[in-house]
Design brief:
The complex is a heterodimer of chains A (about 550) and B (about 425). Chain A is built from 16 helices and 30 strands. Chain A is α/β, with parallel strands linked by helices and about 550 residues long. In chain A, a hairpin with a 4-residue loop joins strand 28 and strand 29. Chain B has ten helices and 23 strands. Chain B is α/β, with parallel strands linked by helices and about 425 residues long. The longest helix of chain B has 21 residues. The chains are: A alpha/beta (about 550), B alpha/beta (about 425).
Chain lengths: ~550, ~425
């Protein structure tokens, strides 16, 4: 396509006052009209609204546009929407460019609008120069294997497997332990109904007997390769390597309880953990009369800043159970903030108070001190130290990430957050998705979760996975890397650096080859290639140089 | 794989209903999405930003609204309510009452000419009645479907048989006063209820002075006051004198954790009051905030760290204690009277603006809808959910998600919604 044929339309978004309240949009529109190949330029109050989108579609037709630029917010949230809008108007979606004049301009230069407007001109001009060099790209189609792997056979994993299997998808449920059930196996009763934990564990039988579910126990994951719709997982079970092929993966590996060793003179007898108390309750062998429970042991501190979410309710439950059996027992819960959100849990908390369970708030810099037969804690309400007699102290330990999370995260190429819990794609709107397509997370692998939260999340993860598994074919990203075999010297620098393991070596030609389905177009290989043999489509050297040159004032 | 022949009906077009619909539609299942208002978007559309990322709410919601509108598997029924239900899982028969819009959906291009000329001024529910809209209107600029609606109760043509100016100025001839309410019948295999929540009205709490003191507002009103698309265009001033407030106070648990009103915890207020204080500080670094609380509930991912950030970087002081009452001085500054737990003394503090974190309550028509659907409610009129399988209602084939079953934040609602979608899909595949 020669230069004369290029007709660029530029849509500049006010984003309400987010951009329009800072930058001079009229000036930007007029400026844009002076740039080469720009056939149309206009403003939109909210480009992402249906009106804004139909405005783009109409103008593509009316002005015969073959390149579209939207100057607005972040491509992270909005590029897919604008691309498909272009596609609907018959334009290849890769002939679209986005300029971020909000997050990177109007928001940061709120106090200097004139400079912000000048910066927006630079950003838009750069984009116009790049747009002139854009090439249409095709999205690859991949087939989908309609089955899933669920890693972890606790309540979240079992329920995710069942939800998928009940929709007729084949599921491989992989558990490292010799039996399914996870942490619930160690529990006596469950809140908020105080029924036997074995009731919930009936899920085990459902999962094990479901005709669509293959259960692998005492099994570990050795290798994961592939991409959305087509993952290969190597499982090690009883010294045998088993390979399975699945279209989607759900991570439900749970969490473990922090060891109480070394906290508050823990001795496993008179000072025990909440989990050990569950065991005593199961055996009906709680003999203590004066019981003190300490919350937030080993968390909400410098080392672990987070709140472990489930410990308050667990302590309340065990306190209520003891009190029901032995109304004369004196139970004190020494806490920081009682986490009893919502309707049912708050009611449960009130019930505990009505039963005579005592609650004493402590400050992090004045934690309780355990003496021989009593403990001492400073109470800010009374502004004094209170003595509480005890013959049993119970420590509420937080859930912490599993030791093997890092290993699994690396195999799946998904991130962990600072406490080594799995990090989802978007906290608000993609809470069980990963940024890596076809991989999902639920339960305490994501964040300490109780039974109902784990079940809710596992249903959600199953739903998200089913959106992939129900399709015969999937479209994957078209802006990928490509190796020019004539320039490649086979040095393997790109193979080593690719974070998605998308590049391999063609032994016959001794050159690198990109698997376009796996490639995410991140560009790392291109930057590392000593021969400039790698083209990153949609971010070619020519396109980037054009942006840099015009920014510097060249033409 | 079993054949899917039945649609799923989703009631409620807030973030929960939207997420459930999108998951099902992507799954290849046809969805009828029923929304009572003229636009989908729900409460999330009213929020300025969202915790704990402080993402702009409408910016992350708008792409989902557009997706819902464009998805070939989703049929949007706006201005619609469920009036009757019969049948059972796999074969429900639903009667929908759809109010006339008086605007042709295919003709209106949301140009806004009619709004400019409409002579009526009506309290704007979307903006928490903080400004007026016209009798022909769209809830909010990004609203979907992005078309106008005539509000029959206030339109001069309907009330006084006069005016019809909108009809004259509309170049597209999109106004149609002859439209009539419709009854639509649907046959669906399963149902998801995602009707959301209402806000507790603090007028009944006399001691807090809401309604009498102009500088005492609710958190959702504050959300509109600081929003760029709100009545102040994002420039925060206080209602009484249009001065910029410097000292803010938030009172948590208003109408909740209180046996005289609602004994339950509203789940999100600890987090959103922190968020609102942060945004206010971002607008003006001179702002100092006090948040009065009972327990700071911040158990979600990154939530505790968020509270710490508020304390350390946004000039927020957290004060444990229940506020006894609010007084007002001659400059209309609210004065908070509370008991300082450290000294057990009753203290008074003067603020420029006080924000009440009013609890989420069930929708006022929740009981009516429960009766129509034949599902149970709990003691407080939220829809009753299974204790461990929270998307499961008391009736086979009907599933729950979001704040209609219990107060919850956006991430929990989204999780809940996807989960309900899975259950609804499962139901029609078995059914």
């Amino acid at each position: 396509m020669s230069n004369e044929d290029i007709r660029i339309g530029v849509f500049i978004c006010h984003c309400g006052t987010n951009i329009g309240g800072v930058l001079d949009i009229t000036e930007l529109i007029e400026y844009t009209k002076t740039l080469p190949n720009v056939a149309y330029s206009a403003g939109n109050l909210y480009t992402c609204s249906e009106v804004g989108l139909s405005n783009i579609r109409e103008n593509i037709k009316e002005h015969n546009l073959n390149r579209v630029i939207v100057a607005s917010c972040s491509p992270r949230t909005h590029e897919p929407l604008f691309r498909s809008t272009c596609q609907e108007a018959g334009l290849n979606p890769y002939l679209f460019e986005m300029v971020n004049i909000r997050d990177q301009d109007s928001w940061v230069h709120m106090k200097e609008p004139q400079k912000g407007t000048e910066k927006a001109k630079d950003l838009i001009r750069m984009s116009v120069y790049k747009a002139s060099l854009l090439e249409p790209l095709e999205k690859m189609q991949v087939s989908v294997i309609p089955s899933a792997a669920v890693i972890g056979g606790g309540i979240a994993g079992m329920n995710a497997a069942l939800t998928l299997a009940n929709q007729s998808f084949k599921v491989s449920l992989i558990e490292k332990d010799s039996e399914l059930g996870g942490l619930i196996r160690h529990l006596h009763k469950t809140y908020p109904t105080n029924e036997d934990a074995s009731n919930i564990l009936e899920t085990r039988n459902l999962a094990e007997s479901h005709k669509e579910i293959d259960v692998y126990k005492s099994a570990t994951i050795e290798k994961i390769e592939g991409y959305v719709g087509n993952y290969k997982i190597v499982i090690l079970q009883e010294k045998k390597m088993i390979e399975i092929e699945v279209g989607a993966i759900i991570v439900a590996t749970g969490a473990r309880v922090l060891s109480p060793e070394g906290y508050y003179n823990y001795n496993g007898k008179t000072i025990i953990s909440q989990l050990e108390l569950e065991g005593l309750l199961k055996e009906n062998s709680v003999n203590a009369k004066n019981i003190a429970m300490i919350q937030c042991v080993g968390c909400r501190n410098e080392e672990r800043r987070y709140c472990s979410n489930i410990c308050c309710m667990t302590a309340l439950k065990n306190a209520i159970l003891i009190k029901e059996q032995n109304p004369d027992a004196n139970i004190t819960i020494i806490f920081r903030d009682i986490q009893a959100q919502g309707v049912t849990y708050e009611e449960y908390y009130r019930r505990a108070r009505e039963m005579g369970i005592i609650f004493i708030k402590y400050l992090p810099d004045k934690p309780p001190i355990i003496k021989e037969d009593h403990l001492e804690v400073y109470n800010e309400f009374m502004n004094q130290v209170i003595g509480i007699p005890h013959d049993l102290v119970v420590l509420s330990m937080p859930l912490i990430a599993n030791e093997d999370s890092e290993r699994l995260a690396k195999m799946l190429k998904v991130p962990l957050e600072e406490n080594n819990f799995f990090l989802e794609a978007h906290v608000k709107l993609r809470p069980v998705d990963f940024a890596t397509d076809g991989v999902f997370v639920c339960g305490s692998a994501h964040w300490p979760a109780d039974i109902s939260e784990s079940i809710s999340q596992s249903n959600a993860a199953a739903s998200r996975a089913s959106t992939i598994l129900s399709k015969e074919m999937l479209e994957v990203e078209g802006s990928t890397a490509e190796v020019n075999p004539d320039l490649c010297i086979g040095c393997e620098a790109c193979i080593k650096i690719c974070p998605y393991s998308a590049i391999s070596k063609d032994e016959e030609t001794d050159t690198a080859v990109v698997n376009k389905v796996v490639c995410k177009g991140c560009g790392v290989c291109g930057a590392s290639c000593p021969q400039n043999a790698i083209i990153i489509h949609h971010f070619t050297s020519d396109q980037i140089i054009a942006e840099i040159v015009t920014y510097g004032g060249g033409d | 794989m079993s054949k899917i022949s039945k649609n799923v009906m989703v009631i409620g077009g807030g973030i929960a209903g939207i997420q459930a619909s999108l998951d099902l539609a992507e799954r290849g299942i046809k969805v009828d999405l029923i929304e009572k208002n003229a636009c989908i978007g729900g409460r999330m559309a009213q929020l300025d930003k969202t915790f704990p990322t402080n993402d702009c709410s409408i910016c992350i919601l708008a792409p989902k609204l557009a997706e819902c509108f464009r998805h070939p598997n989703i049929t949007l029924h706006t201005l619609s309510e469920v009036k009757n239900l019969s049948g059972q899982q796999g074969d429900f028969k639903v009667k929908i009452f759809k109010k006339a819009r008086y605007v042709k959906e295919d003709e209106c291009i949301n140009c806004g000419q009619c709004i400019e000329k409409c002579p009526m001024r009506v309290e704007d529910e979307f903006d928490m009645k903080l400004r007026k809209r016209r009798a022909i209107y769209i809830d909010y600029v990004q609203g979907v479907p992005s078309i106008m609606t005539i509000d029959r109760e206030n339109c001069l043509f309907f009330t006084k048989n006069a005016c019809r100016i909108c009809e004259k100025v509309c170049e597209r001839e999109a106004i149609d006063f002859d439209q009539e309410d419709e009854e639509i019948e649907l046959n669906v295999g399963s149902i998801i209820v995602a009707t959301g929540y209402d806000i507790f009205n603090p007028k009944s709490l006399n001691s807090l002075g809401y309604g009498r003191y102009p500088n005492v507002v609710t958190a959702l009103e504050f959300e509109r006051l600081i929003s760029a698309s709100g009545p102040l265009g994002g420039h925060l001033t206080r209602p009484s004198d249009k001065n910029e407030p410097k000292k803010l106070a938030f009172i948590n648990c208003v109408g909740s954790r209180d046996i005289k009103n609602n004994p339950y915890c509203s789940s999100c207020c600890c987090m959103y009051t922190t968020k609102e204080a942060m945004i206010a500080y971002e607008h003006n670094n001179e702002i100092e905030t006090s948040i009065f609380y009972i327990d700071l509930r911040a158990a979600g991912k990154g939530f505790r760290e968020y509270i710490e950030r508020g304390e350390n970087k946004y000039a927020i002081s957290y004060i444990k204690g229940k506020v006894a009452k609010i007084l007002e001085d001659e400059q209309r500054n609210p004065i908070i009277v509370y008991e300082d737990i450290n000294t057990s003394q009753v203290k008074q503090f003067k603020f420029d603006l006080v924000i009440l974190a009013t609890t989420m309550v069930p929708k006022k028509d929740a009981v009516t809808l429960a009766k129509i659907l034949g599902i149970k409610t709990n003691d407080f009129n939220f829809f009753k959910a299974n204790s461990y399988y929270p998307q499961i209602s008391s009736k086979e084939g009907i599933f729950l998600c979001g704040a209609c079953r219990e107060p919850m934040d956006i991430p929990s609602s989204v999780v809940d919604a996807s989960g309900a979608a899975a259950k609804a899909a499962e139901a029609i595949m078995r059914g």
